[in-house]
Amino acid sequence: MACAKHFPGHGDVDVDSHLDLPVINKSRAELDSNEIKPFRELINAGIGSVMVAHLSVPSIDTGEHRATSISKNTVTGVLRNDLRV
Q: Could you tell me the residue range of the domain that residue 16 belongs to?
């Protein structure tokens, strides 16, 4: 099964997520038009799974130092409800 990773986008960080929790300080609109866009296209094309990154994205979840990998706002809110995975 093909897997799209690392949602919502891991390319714009300056910290190794194995050493610390990287933070992506972009608005939801910026994320939607850049980082999330390829995931949306892969989901619409029928990708079998999506791996969630270990990042902090305050525009999706404002919990202090809450990683996207355990964020209800990210997994349920964005992936399941918004992108319909």
A: 3-82
- How far is 27 from 46, CA to CA, in rounded Å? 27
56 phi and psi angles, rounded to 5 deg: -110, 125
Residue 74 amino acid letter: T
**pTM here?**
0.90
Strand partners, 48: none
In whole angstroms, what is the distance from residue 73 CA to residue 3 CA? 21
Dist. CA 38–CA 51, nearest whole Å: 13
Q: How many structural domains does the chain have?
A: 1
Helix, strand, coil share of the chain (percent; to 5): 35, 15, 55
Q: Which amino acid, residue 73?
A: N
**Residue 30: DSSP 8-state:** H
pLDDT in tens, 19-73: 999 999 999 999 999 999 999 999 999 999 999 999 999 999 999 889 999 999 9
